[in-house]
Amino acid sequence: MSSTKTFLKKIVKPFASLNYFISKKKYEYNEWKEGVSAVVVARNESYNLPIVLESLVGFADQIICVDNGSSDDSVVKIKSFQKKYEAEILVDLIEAPGKLLSECTNIGLQHSKYNWHLRWDADMVFRQRTGKYNSMLLKEKIMKIKWPTAIRLERINLSGDFHHVSKLFDVVDQGEPFLVKRIKNFQYQEAGRFFFLKMPFFYDVIKIPEPIVFHLNQLKTIDRLLRRNAFVNWRQSVNEKNCTDDFETFREKWELKMFGTNNHESAKYRFHKKFVLLYSEPLDMKLYGPYPEQIQKAIDTGNERFSYIYENGKPVARLDKEDSSLENYTPTKEDLTWDVIAHLKNILSEKEQQKIGI
């Protein structure tokens, strides 16, 4: 939040809080139960979903899974989780192909039965429910809160696999108000590249001091990562520059502009070269451990889909056990001579270039 907005909020909040106190009935809805409804929007997240959903058991009283048109077995994984935990937690599956993320999340809100809303990305994992990073302690705390409140949750951002992070961005982000005590007419809005929940000035905002969330930020196929990069740029162009292209048209233009090719497989190959340079810093578990139970289990049982290949002590590629399209691709002469360093110098600031050592 900018200093101007912070200053404005300090001035306005007492008046907004008084208005809320006087007009409580306008904001409250008595049909909501005490508890947490988590909204998880997913599209082709079959690898992450079992880990993500199981980390919510015990914290969420309801999970609304909104599938955004998956072509993998994400829906199968959700139904399997639904059956496995039907005695412990209410799990709803809603299919909403072709909708924007903000629209999917609003659909989840409409089906929520509890008074606390948890917007949970399909690549976020709660830390273990015991010890220092106990998510159940957070639930006990919020159940005592009466005033409209938003909880900011910091995340440890993994990149590429379970053992690496970004060279460019902070390992622990500043967090977002993922957990919010609801009032009537809550709705997400799209702005620029992303979407947000606009909260009235009378809301209290609490930041949890310990990062109790791991973010599987870049644990996706190269194709998915490339698509996501194109998608957020498309939404920004639509919202800020009145772009009228559909997504596929925009994606083709964007890939040509960014990677100098109109061949999608070639763009994937070049994006992968860039990806390995930016997202292959080893994670220091002495600083950021331990892992959540579900991630540790995946590591211990050998259920790691992604891993880095090293040569002479340096990462040179990322391996995907379930998608060999990149391995099977024969790079063209232009692919082999494409200069990833020159590309990064063209798009990164001098400070960012120094951070990644180019």
Walkthrough of the structure:
By secondary structure, the protein is an alpha/beta fold. It has 15 helices and 16 strands. The chain has helices spanning 3-22, 24-27, 49-54, 74-84, 101-110, 135-142, 222-241, 247-259, 264-278, 285-288, 293-300, 325-328, 333-337, 340-347, 350-356, and strands at 33-42, 62-67, 90-95, 114-119, 124-126, 149-153, 155-157, 164-165, 176-181, 188-191, 194-197, 204-207, 213-215, 281-282, 306-311, 314-320. Strands 3-2-1-4-9-6-12 form a seven-stranded mixed beta sheet. The chain is globular and about 70 Å long. 28% of the residues are buried.
CATH level-3 fold name of the largest domain: Spore Coat Polysaccharide Biosynthesis Protein SpsA, Chain A
**Oligomeric state of this protein:** single chain
Strand content bin: 15-25%
Please give the CATH class of the largest domain.
Alpha Beta
Q: How does the overall form come out from the CA principal axes?
A: globular
Low-confidence blocks of residues:
none
CATH 4th-level superfamily of the largest domain: Spore Coat Polysaccharide Biosynthesis Protein SpsA, Chain A
How many domains? The number is: 2
Mean pLDDT: 94
The major β-sheet equals: 7 strands, mixed
Helix segment tally: 15
Number of strands: 16
Range of helix content: 25-40%
Proper CATH architecture of the largest domain? Alpha-Beta Complex
Query: What's the Cα radius of gyration?
Result: 22 Å
Q: Give me the side-by-side strand order of the main sheet.
A: 3-2-1-4-9-6-12
What structural class do the secondary elements suggest? alpha/beta
Separation of the first and last Cα atoms: 31 Å
